[in-house]
Design goal:
mainly beta, 10-stranded mixed sheet
């Protein structure tokens, strides 16, 4: 038996294979004797033939009598004392009994029999096999005289030859059909012999990998499983274009990858000879399942949060960029409800416009892009309702699929979610005054508190790459609600030390934030050129339990909310409302009195103020 068979939990696929030439294997011999074996007798085991095995003489050698267990019907091993020593490279000599018996023993010496005539004994030792002819001779000697022998006619042990295996997959996205390159060669020096032609080979993939029925020009699969391992198999058969053997050829086939890399990555190849009988096998640690690069998901993890922005970031690297990958499949943990309809989908850096929401309303959302997705880095946001309790499997997935075949071009599975917290905050919203490249914009972050909270000590606003705030003094930052407990001292509640972060500090002695709507406004410099803009144009709003909240998502962050960003020249929703209000005002104005115009202007101002905060007011109810 091979060493793998003795430890099947380590590699189930290799455990069912025969012993292989060049590797240590356990050999077991059972015997019965005509004349008893006494203390002081010598037992000699030799491997003969032109491919004689190397016999290992060490503490693993054991000799025991097998006794029938009447209760279970099975044999039990009764160890027999002996001392083993080497008898050349291919043999083993055992002195039976204790060391004290070495000087004497045998018939007439009064030595007790260790194995009586007709009793069955078992000898276990380790060997290094070779391919070829071998015979095993077992003899016992009593005071130098031969007492028992098998005449060297024990059944030969037939190991399989050793295969050297190489396997590669240039691209191995999750849950996708990927091309695999395989080459295997017979290791003659290791095996001690040749194996001839190999017209057929069985390939055993790691657990989770599967094969389609037609997996290549010379690859087929009938869905068969290897032993009890649960591992899928495929059959490679020689074609005329390959000659008459699969040995030393670059073989190509397709395999379907699992969602994530399995713990055991070993591939097994069993080579079959002209009679389609196994003649050799090899194994190699294969390729990992490569998740989509830079894939991540962000959301404010507040229990039961409505209209939360769930932002996905990823870098798309398909195996074949010429195919039309237009489908985005997003999956959230149990309890999430995703929405991609209308304004709920923020396409951010996705190419094109007028994307179609094909499926939502559950933990799944599918978006059909208006044009194919080329390789590159992207971000988009969906709206979601978060669960009230923590999902048992708190992971997300994102797959980019081809429209015609639904084949996966790239994907990320097992993206970790965030632990839910209880916090009476809404999803923050972002508003801005329209500005072009290099100009200043006034950015407003608004949020609502539905019930008082004293869990917050600081607020951190993180700007996307390319944007910088222009806060030079506390007066540059405006807080709309006096109920926000800013740190007392007048000039100390704003930390503008980093151009990419703005920190607002609350009063540590009385940090309670009352229910209400809050807005924080500050000046921001737009990027000077479009090259400065990041594909991941995301703002972050962190509410923190400590003042040392210096980076987004730090240990001090109670919750970190992403907010879809904007581009130079973009008009925010509130600005659009103001423009519409202004257009309506001039269309309805006539030659009425100055008093009426003044009343209309006042009404428009009040409407703009309250309607501009309508989404947050609704969320806070």
């Amino acid at each position: 038996r091979s060493a793998y068979a003795l430890r099947p939990e380590e590699s189930p696929a290799r455990a069912v294979l025969p012993a292989r030439a060049g590797e240590e294997a356990q050999a077991t011999f059972q015997m019965s004797v005509t004349l008893p074996i006494l203390e002081g007798d010598r037992l000699l085991l030799r491997c003969e033939g032109n491919s004689a095995f190397t016999v290992k003489v060490d503490e693993r050698v054991s000799f025991a009598r097998l006794e029938q267990d009447g209760s279970s019907g099975s044999n039990s091993r009764v160890p027999i004392a002996m001392q083993a020593r080497r008898h050349g490279q291919h043999g083993l000599e055992m002195l039976m009994g204790d060391k004290s018996a070495e000087a004497g023993g045998g018939e007439g010496s009064g030595a007790a029999p260790l194995l009586n005539a007709g009793e069955i004994a078992e000898l276990v030792l380790w060997v290094v096999p070779k391919v070829g002819v071998n015979q095993w001779r077992l003899e016992s000697f009593q005071q130098g005289k031969l007492t028992n022998t098998n005449d060297g006619i024990a059944d030969a042990l037939q190991p399989l030859a050793f295969l050297s295996v190489l396997i590669q997959a240039p691209h191995s996205s999750p849950k996708s059909s990927v091309e695999v390159k395989l080459r295997f060669s017979a290791e003659v020096a290791v095996s001690g012999g040749t194996i001839g032609l190999v017209p057929e080979a069985l390939v055993v993939a790691p657990l989770g990998f599967t094969f389609s029925a037609s997996c290549g020009d010379y690859c087929t699969s009938r869905g068969e499983i290897w032993g009890t391992s649960g591992q899928a198999t495929a059959l490679l058969q020689v074609l005329q274009s390959l000659g008459n053997t699969l040995l030393d050829k670059e073989l190509r086939f397709f395999v379907i990858t699992p969602a994530q890399t399995p713990p055991d990555l070993w591939w097994v190849v069993e080579a079959r000879g002209v009679g389609l009988q196994p003649v050799a096998w090899g194994a190699v640690a294969g390729f990992k399942v490569n998740q989509m690069q830079n894939a991540a998901v962000f959301y404010g993890a507040v229990r039961g949060l409505k209209k939360a922005q769930v932002v996905f970031l990823f870098t798309f690297s398909p195996q074949d960029a010429s195919r039309a990958f237009r489908i985005l499949d997003a999956n959230a943990p149990q309890g999430f409800v995703l929405n991609c309809r209308g304004d709920a989908l923020r396409s951010l850096s996705l190419p094109g416009a007028s994307h179609i929401c094909k499926r939502d309303g559950t933990t799944q959302a599918q978006v059909l892009l208006s044009e194919a997705l080329p390789p590159g880095s992207y971000a988009f946001a969906l709206e979601a309702r978060l669960p009230l309790s923590m999902p048992s499997n708190n992971t997300f997935s994102l797959a980019v699929r081809e429209q015609l075949t639904n084949a996966v071009g790239d994907a990320a599975f097992g993206m970790p979610g965030v632990g839910l917290v209880t916090l009476p905050l809404s999803q923050p919203t972002l508003a801005w005054s329209t500005a072009q490249l290099g100009q200043l914009s006034t950015v407003t972050v608004a949020f609502a508190v539905s019930n008082f909270t004293d869990a917050v000590r600081a607020i951190l606003i993180t700007l996307p790459p390319g944007f910088e705030h222009r806060v030079r003094k506390t007066a540059d930052v405006k807080s709309s609600n006096v109920k926000l407990p800013l740190m007392r001292g007048g000039q100390d509640w704003v930390d503008p030390s980093s151009a990419g972060h703005l920190r607002v500090l609350l009063e540590p002695g009385d940090p309670r934030i009352a229910a209400g709507v809050y807005r924080i406004s500050f000046p921001v410099a737009m990027p000077v050129s479009m090259k400065q803009l990041s594909s991941w144009n995301i703002w972050h709003f962190d509410v923190c339990s400590g003042r040392a909240c210096m980076t987004m998502g730090s240990l001090f962050a109670v919750a970190s909310f992403p907010m879809a960003g904007f581009l130079p020249g973009d008009v925010s929703a509130i600005e659009q409302l103001r423009q519409q209000q202004a257009a309506d005002r001039y269309q309805t104005e006539d030659s009425g009195s100055a008093t009426r115009r003044g009343v209309l202007l006042l009404m428009q101002f009040v409407a703009i103020f309250f309607l501009g905060m309508a989404p947050i007011l609704v969320e806070s109810l």
